[in-house]
Design goal:
single chain; DUF2306_membrane; membrane; Membrane protein DUF2306; transmembrane helix; mainly alpha; 9 helices
Length: 235
């Protein structure tokens, strides 16, 4: 008769912040983005909007302001949610901020994003991207919240990481816009016939799709890669 000896579990110390060097830069970029993008909308003056407001659609600007405000909550709160040391040391704060992220951030921002996208003057390609993004963002966040409520924390983490990269996609698509503007500028007088409307719509369409699809694919690749690394380490 064999006896199975169970080794006592060793409590791992929390990972120090300096072992996650991306946390500080992420928070800094998020704060800088909010400081730059939020103030014009606090004035409630449509003339100061960084996004063109559709003429004849008075409801567009209030919806846009609401989307920006709720989106700001999502951007700032997600920085704490993906910080491993903060989650481990302050689990109650993680849960409270998580509720704010879901119910005062992503969900209302995603719903308003649908209406804002319909009125946006950036062409059908950008509209399709923003509508798809809002739907996927909403769905990933709800799936993550439900997994957390069911105490399926592995699934909760995966869905919330997807939600996180979609949240910060509003920042990453700002990287694509100037890049495409530089690359396509020589074609403005030829391909676009000097038409700035078509030129801007092309840049907006490419930037909006790449701004969230690329980060989401990278996130999924990373999630799929980790189990294989873990299995290899146990051999």
């Amino acid at each position: 008769m064999s006896t199975v000896v169970q080794r006592p579990e060793v409590e791992r110390p929390p990972v120090r912040w300096w072992r996650r060097p991306w946390v500080g830069p992420l928070a800094l970029v998020a704060v800088m983005f909010v400081v730059y993008s939020l103030p014009p909308y606090l004035s409630l003056d449509p003339a100061l909007s960084r996004v063109p407001v559709s003429e004849g659609m008075e409801v567009h600007y209030p919806l846009l302001v609401g989307h920006v405000l709720f989106g700001t909550v999502a951007i700032l709160s997600c920085c704490f949610q993906v910080w491993p040391a903060f989650r481990a040391r302050y689990p109650r704060a993680h849960r409270l901020i998580g509720r704010a992220y879901v119910f005062a951030g992503v969900l209302p921002a995603a719903v308003l994003a649908v209406a804002v996208a319909v009125f946006a003057p950036f062409g059908p390609v950008a509209v399709a991207s923003n509508l798809t993004l809002a739907t996927v963002w909403f769905g990933c966040t709800v799936a993550g919240w439900r997994a957390g409520r069911a105490r399926r924390f592995g699934d909760h983490r995966k869905w919330m990481l997807r939600s996180f990269v979609l949240t910060i996609s509003t920042m990453t698509n700002r990287v694509w816009s100037p890049l495409w503007a530089i690359l396509l500028a020589p074609q403005l007088p030829t391909t676009y016939g000097g038409n700035m409307t078509y030129f801007i719509s092309t840049i907006a369409g490419l930037s909006t799709w790449l701004g969230w699809v690329v980060p989401l694919l990278v996130c999924q690749w990373w999630l799929d890669r980790r189990p294989r690394r873990a299995r290899g380490a146990t051999r």
